[in-house]
TrEMBL record, chain A:
It is found in: Cell inner membrane. It comes from Phyllobacterium leguminum. Keywords: ATP-binding, Nucleotide-binding, Transport. This is Carbohydrate ABC transporter ATP-binding protein (CUT1 family). SUPFAM superfamilies: MOP-like (SSF50331), P-loop containing nucleoside triphosphate hydrolases (SSF52540).
From TrEMBL, chain B:
InterPro entries: MetI-like (IPR000515), MetI-like_sf (IPR035906). GO terms for cellular component: plasma membrane. It is a multi-pass membrane protein. It comes from Phyllobacterium leguminum. Keywords: Cell membrane, Membrane, Transmembrane, Transmembrane helix, Transport. This is Carbohydrate ABC transporter membrane protein 2 (CUT1 family). Its main location: membrane.
Length: 350, 280
């Protein structure tokens, strides 16, 4: 186990810059998720940590040792790939023991480690099978087995669940988290799925266009996003945004005036983006008038698309509501959960 | 796809296949049956598809008139060495072209491919001069070295490269993380997975070497060193006329191992073609 420290890490392909100076401290035993939209550089960053991509600038330390120019094999890391990358011509046992065999471990030691990993991941009955004879979930577990078998300092996961169906993804998510809790090995996990990030991470790093937008605990990011990008990226359905101006009467947007929290004091006259999550609305006759556009009952909650002035927003209500498209209702935003962002640089204001 | 064909289409398809088979089956049948016919029956008119009388002595004469066993061995060991050498060279070169990034890699590959466009007849004279100076004329070295490092190997390299290009890069990255260097990744991961492509390279190369004709007649001059295709031309009478039945008996013996190997390995052969992307 080890700390991982990224200082001013940069990556360029010729003149094209993809990672623009990332600083990140990962503590020993921490589960860190790199999350962001496609093309934001999260996989590139992970591959740079693994040693599969060269580092253009900055310093990467694993366990206090600068590893910028070390081969992957000398970094003491293990990686689980999106496609699992199991060797098709080797059995599960050989796949899992391959790295140990290559590092000169004895047969007995390899068998012991493979059996230990297989026991943890419930793979013991599959050790003689070939990857083609396994299901997606089993392949995923073998890939994890291959990673844990040699007890590396850091685990790297590159979107390991994206080839699985939705149900299995939830199961494997739990297994990876449980594995981390058991082994407490420093883990860096890349995903574009913010639900995975929220449920698994000790710390989330939100990336966009090769830059870190925010680093923090999942609920911190959810409750206090640093900017509009993070606010929109974290949470499903995403946060609603209404653009307007802060006035003494409230937040004035086209066709509507919304109530403001006390934290908006001193911001009068400023062009602002008013952000509120779908679940932070309540239906209230004395609230702001909204026209119902679409009602989607989900069972546990009801998702309602509404027109608030000129802006279309989504509200999620835990209670069962009987609404019809075209109906005008009153909705009240929970002022404690209103987020204000600057229209100019999209940063948080309150 | 077969299940979708109507019975009429099936009959038509089988009919077409039978017609297409004639140019392949008839010469083979003619070769085998003529090898046991008396020479006068071979060109009888109307021709007999089934021999009217049998003369098996042609096969013993094949061995009496030429050191045929020796020539068989020559062909076999040359083909084996060429096949092994080509598999080694083409797999390594194909892997390098597919996987190793180096300056002008694509240009280098294009230049190598140009080797396929130059007919061997064009290079045979300079090659002869070269091997003459090296003291290798009337030895088997030209027949071994030219295919391994020449045009036949270029085709094999192309086949191997096409295969390695399709191998998922993650497999190699996983191997790098597991601690393997470039050569071990090639040997332990890429090469075992390339077996279908290697099999097709082996079959192509073996056939090419086994059937090689121009190079042996240019480079070899003594009967003890001849290979089989060259030996076949030596079954002539005192006036230089071919002894057809003996020559065809020798031709049958020459074709036999190749046919057997092809029949046994045809699944690998077809798979190899499919894997290398050469299938239409």
């Amino acid at each position: 186990m080890a700390d991982v420290t990224l200082s001013e890490i940069r990556k360029s392909y010729g003149t094209v810059k993809t990672i623009h100076g990332v600083d990140l401290d990962i503590r020993d035993g921490e589960f860190v998720v790199l999350v962001g939209p496609s093309g934001c550089g999260k996989s590139t960053l992970l591959r740079m940590i693994a040693g599969l991509e060269t580092i253009t600038g900055g310093t990467l330390k694993i366990g206090g040792r600068v590893v910028n120019d070390l081969d992957p094999k000398d970094r003491d890391i293990a990686m689980v790939f999106q496609s699992y990358a199991l060797y098709p011509h080797m059995t599960v046992a050989t796949n899992m023991g391959f790295s140990l065999e290559h590092r000169g471990a004895g047969k007995a030691a390899i068998a012991e480690r493979v059996n230990w990993a297989a026991g943890i991941l419930d793979l013991t009955h599959l050790l003689d099978r070939y990857p083609r004879q396994l299901s997606g979930g089993q392949r995923q577990r073998v890939a994890m087995g291959r990673a844990i078998v040699r007890n590396p300092q850091v685990f790297l996961f590159d979107e390991p669940l994206s080839n699985l169906d939705a149900k299995l993804r939830v199961v494997m998510r739990g297994e990876i988290k449980a594995l981390h809790q058991k082994l407490r090995t420093t883990t860096i996990y890349v995903t574009h799925d913010q639900v995975e990030a929220m449920t698994m991470a000790d710390k989330i790093v939100v990336l966009n266009a090769g830059k870190v937008e925010q680093i923090g605990a999942p609920l911190d990011l959810y409750d206090r996003p640093a900017n509009q990008f993070v606010a929109g990226f974290i949470g499903s359905p995403s946060m609603n945004f209404v653009e307007g101006t802060i006035t003494p009467e409230g937040f004035a947007a086209p066709g509507i005036v919304l109530p403001l929290p006390a934290s908006a004091k001193g911001l009068e006259g400023q062009r602002t983006i008013y952000g509120i999550r779908p679940e932070h609305f309540s239906i209230n006759d004395g609230g702001v008038a909204a026209e119902v556009v679409l009602v989607e009952p989900m069972g546990s909650e009801t998702q309602v698309t509404m027109k608030l002035g000129a802006t279309q927003i989504i509200g999620v209500f835990r209670e069962r509501v009987s609404l019809e498209p075209g109906l005008t209702i009153g909705v009240r935003p929970d002022l404690a959960n209103v987020h204000l962002f600057s229209s100019a640089d999209r940063r948080r204001l309150n | 796809m077969k299940a979708d064909l109507s019975p009429r289409m099936k009959v038509a398809l089988y009919g077409l296949m039978c017609v297409l088979l004639i140019p392949f089956v008839f010469p083979t049948w003619w070769m085998v049956t003529s090898s046991i016919k008396p020479i006068s029956d071979i060109f009888a008119f109307p021709p007999h598809l089934v021999p009217q009388s049998y003369d098996w002595t042609t096969y013993s004469k094949v061995f009496e008139l030429q050191p045929f066993v020796r020539q068989y061995w020559n062909s076999a060991y040359i083909a084996a060495m060429v096949t092994t050498g080509t598999m080694i060279v083409s797999s390594m070169a194909g892997y390098a072209f597919a996987r190793i990034k180096f300056p002008f890699a694509n240009t280098a590959f294009m230049i190598v491919l140009l080797g396929l466009l130059i007919p061997s007849e064009v290079t045979i004279v300079p090659l002869f001069q070269m091997f003459l100076k090296a003291g290798m004329v009337n030895t088997h070295w030209p027949l071994i070295l030219v295919p391994i490092f020449g045009a036949p190997s270029v085709f094999a390299t192309f086949v191997m490269r096409q295969f390695f290009v399709t191998l998922p890069p993650e497999l190699e990255e996983a191997a790098r993380v597991d601690g393997l260097g470039r050569f071990k990744i090639f040997r332990k991961i890429a090469l075992p997975l390339a077996r279908p492509a290697l099999a097709s390279v082996a079959i192509f190369t073996f056939l090419h070497s086994w059937n090689l004709f121009l190079e042996p007649i240019v480079f070899l001059s003594s009967a003890e060193k001849f290979t089989l295709p060259q030996a076949l031309t030596q079954y002539t009478d005192a006036y230089g006329g071919p002894m057809w039945n003996i020559q065809l008996a020798a031709a049958t013996l020459t074709a036999l191992p190749v046919l057997i190997v092809f029949i046994i390995a045809q699944k690998q052969f077809v798979e190899g073609l499919a894997h290398t992307g050469l299938k239409g």
